[in-house]
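Students often ask what a holo structure prediction actually looks like on paper. The answer is less mysterious than it sounds. You provide the chain, you provide the ligand, and the output is a string of discrete structure tokens encoding the 3D arrangement of the protein together with cytidine-5'-monophosphate.
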Amino acid sequence: MKTLTRQAPAKLNLTLDVLGKREDGYHEMKMVMTSVTLADTVTLASEPGEGIVLSSNLGFLPVDGKNLAVSAALRLKEETGADWGKLTIGLEKRVPVCAGMAGGSSDAAAVLVGLNELLGLGLTRERLMEIGARVGSDVPYCVLGCTALAQGRGEVLTPLPALLHCWVVLAKPGFPVSTPELFARIDTQKVRCRPDTGGVMAALEAGDLPGVARRLFNVFEAVLPERKAHQVEELKQELFRRGALGASMSGTGPTVFGLFDAEAPAREAAEGLKDMCRDVFVTETL
Ligand code: C5P
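The corresponding structure tokens follow.
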């Protein structure tokens, strides 16, 4: 039996802009993404036999092709003819699920990169990103993994200078969000404020953490239903009160994050936020 273990880090949107709806039904995006150390652990094992068996520490996750990790393996086989006999995928989930942090996409990327290595397929990173784009819009970013500008559906990626090391407090409110629903809402509302993407890129170039932090911006916050928007705003304000350099929602949410330049205030802020929200994490930029 051949086995391999990889980490699948969570992503954050430093900026998120939706430029418009495309003819294929997807939306044209412009966003700056980065990754944090909070990660799932993905274990792959290949042995003689056939089929894919997925197990995870979260009983409610799908274990068939609806799970992006399985979908990625199936897509890899379809596109390259890769043969693994029987594949066992183990997911140790730590990244909150349905949270706007690309946890499922990151698992899928880890499966693609991991199987390439485990089976010695010799595929380039670009080819893995191409296959990943057919699994989900965030998968190519997760294959790349560094701070990057994402355009197109999210699959057109330009690496950027890494965000300076900082501490990140994540708070996931209890309400659910539907990604297709939020995209539909943004189609019917005029986007009045957009992120200063160029300003964030210049601040990354200059190694200016406060400059990045004060420009965090996500257009989806403005189209959340009112009560959800209110909760997100309250969490952001609390993060600011507790010393965050900047705060924003990630992806289609609902996770809100704050950037801190030191560990102690980040940990204190996380303790304080636990009164408002059950799922609170302290992590660091990768
Ligand atoms: O690509 P993925 O399957 O992750 O996308 C999930 C949903 O998000 C799509 O079905 C679509 O409704 C929406 N989406 C979009 N434009 C994008 C990415 C996602 O409309 N660029």
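The CA atoms of residues 190 and 223 lie 9 Å apart.
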